[in-house]
Amino acid sequence: MKIKSLALSAMGLMLLASCSGGSDKSALTDKSTPTDSLSFTFGQMAAMQRAVSFEQDSTLKSADARKAYDQGFADGFKLLKADNEGYNSGLLLGLQLAMQMQDLNKNTGIELNRDLVLNGFNVSATDSVDPTAYQKIQERGARLMSAIMADKVKVKVDEAAKKGNYKKEGNLYYIQNKAGQGAKLTTGQRAVIKLNVLDKNHKELMPNMKDQEMPWTVGDGQLPVLDKVLPMMQVGSAYEVIAGPQQAFGVQVPPMIDQKEPVIITVEVVSLGDSVAAPAAPAAAPAPAPAK
């Protein structure tokens, strides 16, 4: 039997509302941190995976098997029991979640609260899947992850912006590399732009991207950083922005981007409308020399 992996890699600005309560560290309180909220949400994700297992695995239909599954999850670091499939299934989920928690700490520095993970699992466990609830918890986890990582990288962004003499407009750091002409772009307007993505040392992270012209709708929400910088620009202008990856890309940071480091985005407004320049035609071959 194969257990589907938890969709926790996608979890990564809105924080989970804190719940009131006492000093029990296994429950959210009004003093809970964003990491506490993310811990609880991870437990809820595991609870949803529990329901998926119950619906898909015929060995988990009985009440005894499901009780064993929950015990196996709680004891996720113990050895398998050869004669108890329900326990082993829960154990696999517990081990899987524990490994993902370790990977999360290693890759992002976020250390989840294990008591809150278990609490999120226990209070959310059901025996059938609600697809809508499952999706909402995934989306909430992604927003929490993004918010926590954005907060971690903000100090690095501030330092790099100061060293690079970037100007600040709201919470956006930018440099105008080339002035433009005409009116500034407005939300909903179509334009042709060139875009490039670099690390903080100006090394290209998406090679060959900078020369590509692409139509873009101002303020369409595809890239948060462009929603902020394009309304500051005119046709012909070129800007450079430094930001945290989460501020630049939102919750879906491309895999080649280090979520712990600032990223530089360069953007140039080529023209208005949708027309993209066609590639230059190859030069015609020279005519043969006349015969003598």
List key phrases describing it.
alpha+beta; 292 residues; 7 helices; 6 strands
- Helical amount among residues, as a percent range? 25-40%
**Strand percentage:** 5-15%
Strand order of the largest sheet: 1-2-5-6-3-4
Number of E-type strands: 6
Topology pattern, helix = H, strand = E: HHHHHEEEEHEHE
Terminal CA distance:
83 Å
Which structural class do you get from the secondary structure elements? alpha+beta
Largest sheet: 6 strands, antiparallel
Cα shape? elongated
How many helices?
A: 7
Q: Which stretches of 5+ consecutive residues score pLDDT under 50?
A: 1-23, 279-286
Provide mean pLDDT, rounded. Answer: 84
Spatial extent as radius of gyration: 26 Å
Explained architecture:
The chain is an alpha+beta fold and 292 residues long. 39% of the residues lie in helices and 14% in strands. The protein is built from seven helices and six strands; from the N terminus they run H-H-H-H-H-E-E-E-E-H-E-H-E. The protein has helices spanning 34-56, 63-74, 85-108, 114-124, 131-163, 224-229, 245-249; strands spanning 167-169, 172-178, 190-199, 213-217, 238-243, 263-272. Strands 1-2-5-6-3-4 form a six-stranded antiparallel β-sheet. Helix 1 (34-56) packs across helix 4 (114-124). The N and C termini lie far apart (83 Å).
